[in-house]
């Protein structure tokens, strides 16, 4: 689905994913000269936004476990004039030294990781003291909205996925994986268990998505 990934994001969210990512950038504390690691960076939305913020004195590393997604993101960044490093890697084994990044982000990727606690522990390891981890992910929606959200997720999105990408199975998996992902409070607890402090979360679009933020001290 890599070639139509961005189009599907716009169609599924009605463009809201752009606002969710803008909010994430605003909460990151990233500035000129910062070092940022974008885990599961996909087609490079966050990496591109961060590259604009850190400037030439900063560093953004764009990573993904999926080569097709990584290549698409890398090419997009190059086309925009931001030749940021790209690395294919598993978030459970991050190939960077301890205490290296000012900010680590993972947007819509943690849900797909088998051992979420191990991946979060790795993200914590590579953060500098004072650094921030941001997790943007689908979460538990406001309960009165749940029946409508379930219908949209299981009946509408897979059909749109079939029309746009000729792959309904990936979008059926999307709906199923969201229901298996920890809710807001549970994810907060997992983040705290790996050492992150001052963990808080922001519900976006009635809890369809939540942004979790934690610090390493």
Write a brief structural summary.
It contains eight helices and seven strands; from the N terminus they run H-H-E-H-E-H-E-E-H-E-H-H-H-E-E. It has 217 residues and is α/β, with parallel strands linked by helices.
Summarize the topology.
Layout: H1 5-13, H2 16-26, E1 35-39, H3 45-54, E2 59-64, H4 67-79, E3 86-88, E4 101-107, H5 116-126, E5 127-138, H6 146-165, H7 168-180, H8 184-193, E6 197-204, E7 209-215
Parallel strand pairs: 1-2, 1-4, 2-3, 4-5
Antiparallel strand pairs: 5-7, 6-7
Q: In which order are the strands of the major sheet placed?
A: 3-2-1-4-5-7-6
Order of helices and strands: HHEHEHEEHEHHHEE
Mean of residue pLDDT? 95
Helix content: 40-55%
User: Uncertain regions: pLDDT < 50 for 5+ in a row?
Assistant: none
Number of DSSP strand runs: 7
Sheet of most strands: 7 strands, mixed
Strand-residue proportion: 15-25%
N- to C-terminal distance: 39 Å
Determine Rg (CA atoms, Å).
17 Å
Describe this structure in words.
The chain is an alpha/beta fold and 217 residues long. It is 45% helix and 22% strand. The protein has helices at residues 5-13, 16-26, 45-54, 67-79, 116-126, 146-165, 168-180, 184-193, and strands at residues 35-39, 59-64, 86-88, 101-107, 127-138, 197-204, 209-215. A 7-stranded mixed sheet has the order 3-2-1-4-5-7-6, with helices on both faces. Helix 1 runs antiparallel to helix 6 and helix 6 (146-165) packs antiparallel against helix 7. The model has no long low-confidence stretch (mean pLDDT 95).
């Amino acid at each position: 689905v890599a070639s139509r990934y961005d189009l599907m994001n716009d169609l599924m969210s009605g463009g809201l994913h752009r606002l969710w990512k803008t909010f994430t950038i605003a909460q990151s504390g990233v500035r000129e000269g910062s070092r940022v690691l974008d885990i599961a960076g996909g087609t490079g939305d966050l990496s591109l936004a961060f590259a604009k913020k850190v400037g030439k004195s900063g560093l953004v590393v764009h990573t993904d476990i999926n080569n097709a997604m990584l290549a698409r993101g890398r090419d997009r960044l190059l086309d925009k004039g931001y030749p940021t490093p790209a690395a294919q890697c598993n978030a459970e084994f991050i190939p960077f030294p301890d205490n290296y990044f000012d900010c680590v982000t993972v947007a819509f990727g943690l849900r797909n990781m088998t051992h979420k606690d191990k991946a979060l522990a790795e993200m914590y390891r590579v953060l500098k003291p004072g650094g921030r981890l941001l997790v943007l992910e689908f979460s538990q929606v406001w309960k009165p909205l749940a029946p409508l959200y379930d219908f949209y997720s299981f009946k509408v999105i897979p059909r749109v996925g079939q029309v746009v990408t000729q792959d309904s199975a990936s979008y059926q998996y999307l709906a199923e994986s969201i229901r298996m992902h920890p809710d807001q409070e549970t994810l907060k607890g997992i983040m705290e268990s790996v050492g992150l402090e001052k963990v808080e979360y922001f519900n976006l679009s009635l809890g369809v998505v939540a942004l979790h933020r934690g610090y390493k001290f």
